[in-house]
Amino acid sequence: MNELRESIRSLGIADPETAVAVHALTGADPVLLQSPAPLPQRFEQVDGWLMQGFLSPDTPHFAAVDGAPAAALGEAPDEAEDAVLSLVVVRPRTLYDLRTGTRLSEADLAALLPRLEAAGLIAPAANPLEPDNPFWMFTDRLARFHYAVLRPHLDRWRRGRIAEPLWRRNRARFDRYVGRPEFLNLTRDWAREVTGAATATRITVPDPR
């Protein structure tokens, strides 16, 4: 059974694109699904739902999103951890990518990556072309949203004065770095389920609708 697909369906949102976008942030967490705005049923309603629930200091879940990395680690990420997480949110990264992008040594990363994995922030995913060189991907949805949307302008988000203009500026980052990975995980699980393969490389999948 495709657990991710069933979890997305459990939201009760009929439109697949909207359901994936919501689940990409909240999962099926009943606390996060509680918001002043009702769950969006159409994709164009996602913006308002996010604005009312997550994107300014006076919304119910802003503090959870703002503090997600620190909550997972037990303290604020240090400079090296922050650099790794900022890279991984853009796309899955191999060890080589992380060494190049952060200029951390392999020894430094060997100590740091297990800590981030143990905190539930990221995890290695199979790399079919290089089985010994996995892709590191986000697994914590709130932290992924933090790095995708809040992190580039964190002080401005915390002041809460221009949340709507900031959201318009960062809307594409939500689609690209939050919604898209959730959909890719869904399609990857679908491909493995249908083909019986242990891993998937390049695939063509049906439209989710």
Question: What can you see in these coordinates?
Answer:
The protein is mainly alpha-helical and 209 residues long. It has two domains: 3-68 and 154-195, no CATH class; 70-138, Winged helix-like DNA-binding domain superfamily/Winged helix DNA-binding domain (Arc Repressor Mutant, subunit A, Orthogonal Bundle), CATH 1.10.10. It contains twelve helices and two strands. The chain has a two-stranded antiparallel sheet. The model has no long low-confidence stretch (mean pLDDT 91).
- The low-confidence parts are none
Number of E-type strands: 2
Rounded to the nearest angstrom, the distance between the terminal CA atoms is: 19 Å
Number of domains: 2
Shape: globular
Q: Could you give the order of the helices and strands? A: HHHHHHHHHEEHHH
Given the structure, what is the number of helices? 12
Oligomer: single chain
| Overall residue-averaged pLDDT value | 91
Computed over alpha carbons, the radius of gyration is: 17 Å
State the major sheet.
Answer: 2 strands, antiparallel
What strand order characterises the main sheet?
1-2
Beta-strand level of the residues, as a percent range? under 5%
Structural class: mainly alpha
Q: Report the helical percentage.
A: 55-70%
Short account of what is shown:
It contains twelve helices and two strands.
What's the structural blueprint in terms of helices and strands?
Blueprint: H1 3-9, H2 16-26, H3 30-33, H4 46-53, H5 62-66, H6 68-73, H7 79-88, H8 95-102, H9 106-118, E1 122-125, E2 135-138, H10 141-150, H11 154-159, H12 163-195
Antiparallel strand pairs: 1-2
Helix pairs in contact: 2-12, 10-12
